[in-house]
Amino acid sequence: MIFDPETLIRINSARSGYEKALWYESARMDYRGNSVISEVNTAKHDKRKAKLAPAFAGKNVALLETKVDEWLAALVRAIRAKIAAGESTMDIGVMIQYFQVDLISELLIGKPWGDLEDEKDHFGYLKMSEFQVPAIQAFGFLPAARIIYTSPWFMKLFGPKPTDTGGLGLFMRVLQDEVEKRFKEKIGKPEGSWDILDEWIKNGVPPNECQFDLSLLVPAGSETSVMMIRGTLLLLMSSPVAYWKLKQEIRDGIAAGRISNPITSEETRGLEYTQAVVREGLRLMTPIGFGFSKLVPSSGDTICGKFIPGGTSVYPNYHSLMRCEEVFGSDAESFRPERFLGNSQDVAYMSKVVDLTFGGGRFVCLGKTVANLEMNKIFVELLRNFDFQVATPEKPWKRWAYGTFVIQDFRTRVTEDTTME
Prior knowledge:
Elements: H1 5-11, E1 19-20, H2 42-52, H3 60-84, E2 89-91, H4 92-109, H5 115-118, H6 125-140, H7 143-149, H8 152-158, H9 167-186, H10 196-202, H11 207-222, H12 225-237, H13 240-255, H14 265-268, H15 272-284, E3 294-295, E4 301-303, E5 306-308, E6 313-314, H16 318-321, H17 325-328, H18 345-354, H19 368-385, E7 386-390, E8 398-402, E9 404-408, E10 411-416
Antiparallel strand pairs: 1-3, 2-10, 3-6, 4-5, 7-10, 8-9
Helix pairs in contact: 3-4, 3-19, 4-11, 4-12, 9-11, 12-15, 12-19
């Protein structure tokens, strides 16, 4: 495992000679083929990603922002409804999960699953993911187990299938049915709505690849952002100075007409302290602790003064990277957004290191645009409407680390803030 920032920047650069290691195969969910995440063949991966990426860029960014705004408003309404019903103490972690699943499902296939409105884990997805995330991580780090677990014959016999009546198989069938319907009804016809699946179809992504990538992008899009969002909320609630500084910046911005309702992406860039909170939250509550290994080029490489033979798997240790005192200072373990204030070279470098969370070059996260839209907006929208307090200060949540994270019982007391407008 490595956490040297310069090495990781080099590995993630556009001209890096590094390739995906076999660890990625542990993310395969269907014996019939790979998703863009589990595909380790560089040429196939790059060709496929080139068809998927345009859906998240260009003119589509405005459409993505509109959907993010709509679901942030829905989250605010859902929290307000619980307060009105006398349920001011709530599991805010689950509410954010419901919000995220509905947002991602609507972005991908144009239909929210209805988790937030119904306060229900439709299709058992969240329950399934709490098992699937640890399983993927465990098998990924055990080569012999990974080879068996991801082999076509094993997955065909024992893996999830769209014919299953529950679990991951049911989740796969929901997505498969939507893909089959879309190809039957949409090709050659005017499009009356927009979603990412439509963009993929226009870009020539075949049905089987659409299904495989949807099956991975739902968990990839929902299980990562929620860690940062929930974690940053906890850090803010545990840091009164930072909490009230952020509230004051929001209050001043509204009073000066610099914050619309909802806040725009452009407006968020002008909120210096909000941006600092987002960077500091992403640093300390990075969605990924470790994993996503890369193969050293055949010629070998020198890492931190040591020669590493070609073909060796190197694992980024994001948890240690984001607490590196040489980069973030002697108080790197502390939540202090002020470290990101200003325009110095040190601030720019710290931001560059934090951005490694999303990868880079051919390894950059497909959903980076959506994640940034969410992170920059959600704390403004939540704190302009509510105040948050940890309900159980001695044990605010339960958290398990499996490379990525599983969180339960994030109980908070939420009250309305009527002073902002």
